[in-house]
Design a protein that fits this description.
Length: about 220
């Protein structure tokens, strides 16, 4: 693969097609074509109805902290710069047994590639058995003082274990580690990459939908 070849690892919003969303969300995200040149309208225009955590997005500390920093306050270089893709083989969760050998360093941007990327996005239905992050790995990443962690499904925690969702999010976000969710790393090889990603500049935002691209270095 050419070093100049950028790879889009974000999940597309699909016009007039169903999209996966978290079970407790009040409604499914939609992108609807409200005017269409191919149907005789003077312009083509779409209506986007999503919440801040639909599609590829970055969580801010405000997501879990009433006094946390908001997405518009995120340092611009948080998701711009070197990033490392680490492939997780465990079909259930991201565990220390696999993560520890990588000797993650302070300030790194870590993107976890799991089996989610190869199958979870093939359906618009919520996938119940996605691979999630364990509490132990969240504590480890906090101690390593990384800058950002990315995962390849709707949330970093286990939706069947609300305490895990709370612990993982709070452990990371309360320690200044931003969380990217809903990445698609299918076909991406483990290794070092350059990443460019910025969330929407939503004032007082708890999260920001974004587009993420990487290229090998």
């Amino acid at each position: 693969m050419s070093k100049l070849e950028w790879i889009d690892i974000s999940v597309p919003f699909k016009v007039d097609q169903p999209m996966a969303y978290f079970p407790t969300d009040p409604q499914r995200p939609t992108v609807t074509r409200i005017f269409d040149r191919t149907k005789g309208d003077p312009v083509t225009m779409s209506q986007i109805n999503i919440n801040s955590h639909n599609g590829t997005h970055i969580d801010s500390p405000f997501h879990f902290m009433a006094d946390g920093t908001t997405i518009d306050m995120m340092p611009l270089d948080t998701a711009i710069g070197p990033a490392r893709v680490i492939e997780i083989k465990d079909p259930v969760s991201i565990k220390m047994a696999e993560v520890a050998p990588y000797d993650i360093k302070e300030g790194e941007r870590i993107l976890f590639k799991t089996r989610n990327s190869s199958y979870a996005y093939k359906t618009a239905d919520f996938v119940e058995d996605y691979v999630y992050c364990t509490n132990e790995v969240a504590y480890y990443l906090k101690d390593r003082k990384i800058r950002l962690v990315g995962v390849d499904y709707i949330t970093i925690g286990n939706h069947k274990d609300i305490e895990n969702i709370k612990i993982v999010h709070e452990t990371l976000l309360l320690n200044g580690i931003y969380i990217m969710e809903m990445l698609n790393l299918d076909g991406v090889k483990p290794g070092q990459y350059e990443m460019i990603c910025l969330p929407l500049r939503m004032e007082k935002g708890d999260a920001g939908p974004c587009r993420a691209i990487i290229r090998p270095v």
